[in-house]
Amino acid sequence: MNEPYSPAHLVGDDVAVDSKRSLLGLWQIVFLVISAAAPLTGMLGAVPPAISLGNGAGIPGAFVIAGLVLLVFSVGFASMSRHIVRAGAFYAYITAGFGRPVGMAGAFVALLSYTSIQIALYGLFGFFCTVVLGPLMHGSLPWYAYSFACLVVVQFTGIRGIDLNSRLLGVLMCLELGILLVLSLAIVIHHGGPDGLTLAPFSPRHVFSGHLGIAVMFALASFIGFEATAIYGKECRDPKVTVPRATYVSVTLILVFFAFVTWAIVCAYGISNVQDVATKQPGDFWFIQSTKYLGGAMTTTMSFLLLSSIFASLLSFHNTIVRYIHALSGEGILPSALDRLHPKYGSPYLASYLQTLSVAVPVGLFVVAGSDPFNIVFSWGSALGTIGIVMLQAVTSFSVAAFFRATKKDTRLWHAFLAPVLGGCGLLSIGIVLIGNLDALAGSDSPVVRAFPWIVLTVALIGVAIAFILKRSRPDIYVRFGQ
Q1: Global pTM?
Q2: 441 vs 453: CA distance, rounded Å
Q3: In a 3-state reduction of DSSP, which class is residue 24?
Q4: Where are the domains of the chain?
Q5: Which of 21, 161, 398, 463 could be cross-linked to 108 through a Cys-Cys bond (beta carbons 3.0 to 4.6 Å apart)?
Q6: Mind listing the pLDDT tens digit for each residue in 222-258?
Q7: How far apart, in whole angstroms, are the C-alpha atoms of residue 167 and residue 190?
Q8: Fold for the domain defined by 7-480
Q9: Predicted confidence band at 180 (pLDDT cuts at 50, 70, 90)?
């Protein structure tokens, strides 16, 4: 299955990116990536269960561990981005290292995973709209009314072009980062809670207490989206420089910010109290301290910024999935019509409509089934998507080492071998923890949830089978795949 990857597929010095689409600079890509990570959504949604089910007061250390694993992964990922510029970054890198059948499996798993996460976020958006907007509107609109309204706005905005999206996401990202930073600084200024300001949450005693693997699992889920740096390679200025820098900047910013904010909230509650509050009041965990330190008005503002955070993440993931669809259509795997660009905005508009439809139908099925938007739509969708992406990252990391070993395009020991292998092992270990603790991640021990790893494996095998079918029946498409 490991086929040689032709040097013609690589990006050389003489290959120029289409000037009409070279719109994105370093910080625009960083805005898109951090928006996909949705800092406010991650903090409000992932931190309470990570504390209650994981390592308690040691949660800041769990974010540091997850961030360091991804920084090591980023070394090989960034090195690869200097040689291959593709909208479908994951599957293009896997194809380069392990051949087209495995690359095809990666493409299908990526589509499944990102789509699952987007479905989950639509459920989360609808749920919080009923909580935040319901009382203000003095009405009782169902959650799915808000979800489908958001879906229409995402489609409308997404088709308007990537430059508009990056500016809008940048504004929303700064607002949600700002409210968390203001709360954290207020806690620091007031010297924290019962134990004062202490570095104990970073000490091995607390970091390695309880179930560290579960805490790292939730922390890693909060980073999902950073890999989009490479997806926008063809739409940025000087991708061989911008993409690696954007990757390092994004992961480092997310790591430092998450570690600082979680440290502040632990200090606010105190080492001995934080786990108890996170377990008994997960929904109000952040709002309790916001009301105490910032007042009711700022707490209300945080509630609205949570909605904008989810919207920003939805828009960013929409862009990511659309570019995967666009890349696959250009290679003949999906209908060629999806390769068309909008005459005015230059965006792959038919791919955008398909992506919206691929989300609307499953959400509609959840509505018909009467599923709970938080406990089913969000929890199940995010669990399935997280498993797929973490495993995809692990395979991608190993493929980087295989690619450089075969081509000698990069002979640096750390960049081309040690970092990719170590990153892959770390991600694979976290993936195994994910599978072993699916009930904690999804909040359910349903047989459907237990089947998630098998669903991911089945989709991957379908991709492999399609690759071999194309190799025999359409060798022209097969040869073009991943180029």
Answers
A1: 0.85
A2: 13
A3: strand
A4: 7-480
A5: 463
A6: 887 666 666 666 667 777 777 788 888 888 998 999 9
A7: 35
A8: Amino acid/polyamine transporter I (1.20.1740)
A9: very high
